Amino acid sequence: MSQSDLIKRISCVVAAALISTTVNAIDNIEDLKPRPALKTNKATEYLLTDVTTAGDNVVVVGGRGHILVSTDNGNSWAQSEVPVQQLLTSVYFPSAQNGWAVGHEGVILHSGDGGKNWELQFANPYKKLSNEEMDSLSEEEFMTLPQKGSPLLDVWFRNDKQGYVVGAYGMFYGTSDGGKTWQSVADRIENFDGWHLNAIQGNEDGVVYIAGEKGVLFRSNDHGETWKTLQAPYDGSFFNILIGHQPNDVFIFGLQGNTYKSTDQGDTWMEVDAKTSDGLMGGIVLGNGGVMIVGNSGVITTSQNSGNTFKAKSTKQRKALLAVEKMPNGKLVMVGQGGVRIESVELN
Asked: How far is CA 338 from the centre of its chain?
């Protein structure tokens, strides 16, 4: 597995029993000892892991706690005020002003101004315990120790109040009050071995998907309240999910270019040849039924017929691309190991 795979989607085996607890956002922040992200004029060139839009703003997140905002379709970028230096892995804005970002050590950040300023809502940092402290742990506390210091890997919000985050060792938290409190909702899904949950995506119809390592797949049809375990077409790691143009269409993709499409909300799957063996990390739906997926070695694979056939190419730099988004002006912005990349047209 390449370095970029390890950065964003760590794969390993762990048996972890998960408990349902409500966590006040302040409880674990003191253990994190947060330090503000350092400002640098080279932030657009460093590792960036995800990109989204917030109204007319474009927001990217990445290494060293860097968050950047562009108000002019990527022509210029301003570094945001961020209270942590942890690697950030995902960002999502359900509305123009309110957004959330997640990252290593269980960090959850919130912005109420379109991504310019951020506050730390939650953290689950690693804390070394003495032998006496270890002996005093309950069985449930002991089994959730691997989560301490581990990364959250994706975030999705239905609206400005209700949202979910997923991550390593089966971490799955939800909030119904805009992140003032977070509750472990891992008992809603059948992930008894604690496999890493790499991605969560939903639509306006209440359909939400979760995908992870070892082929774990789940679907909710009621905005995340109840979940069904889906039969995976592949027992390797899925790194991301893409909901297609049609309401029942969904793509899953990940390790070694493995890509699958469903036209019935994941009840059945067909394998799609993405024309690459590189790990695929992020994607978007394009105009006229198109689909674009990006990944390791700078691979960009596109389909002009709703994901039935693909054509692949790679950037000259061959640096990993981790996410892609369409900006308000129609241009594409990609992020990854080489920082920000702007494309003026949808690639064929």
From this structure: 19
Q: How far is the C-alpha of 254 from the C-alpha of 235, rounded, in Å?
A: 11
Q: Tell me how far apart the alpha carbons of residues 196 and 299 are, in angstroms, rounded to a whole number.
A: 24
Three-state secondary structure along the chain?
CCHHHHHHCCCCCCCCCCCCCEEECCCCHHHHCCCCCCCCCCHHHCCEEEEEEECCEEEEEEHHHCEEEECCCCCCCEECECCCCCCEEEEECCCCCCEEEEEHHHCEEEECCCCCECEEEECCCCCCCCHHHHHCCCHHHHHCHHHCCCCEEEEEECCCCCEEEEEHHHCEEEECCCCCEEEECHHHCCCCCCCCEEEEEECCCCCEEEEEHHHCEEEECCCCCCCEECCCCCCCCEEEEEECCCCCCEEEEEHHHCEEEECCCCCCCEEECCCCCCCEEEEEECHHHCEEEEEHHHEEEEECCCCCCCEEEECCCCCCEEEEEECCCCCEEEEECCEEEEECCCCC
**Rounded Cα distance, 26 and 134, in Å:** 23
Beta bridge partners of 120: 109
Residue 10: strand pairing partners: none
- Note whether 224 and 209 are within 8 A (CB): no
Q: Are 57 and 12 in contact (CB under 8 A)?
A: no
What residue type is assigned to position 137 of the chain? L
Positive/negative CA dihedral, 128, 1, 6, 208 = negative
Pair type for strands 250-254 and 238-243: antiparallel
Q: What is the pLDDT of residues 153-188, one digit of tens each?
A: 999 999 999 999 999 999 999 999 999 999 999 999
Res. 17: pLDDT tops 90: no
pLDDT at residue 30, as a whole number: 66
Max CA separation in the chain (angstroms): 62
Q: Is 290 left (phi over 0), alpha (psi -120 to 50) or beta?
A: beta
- Give CA angle at 38 (32, 39), nearest 5°: 150
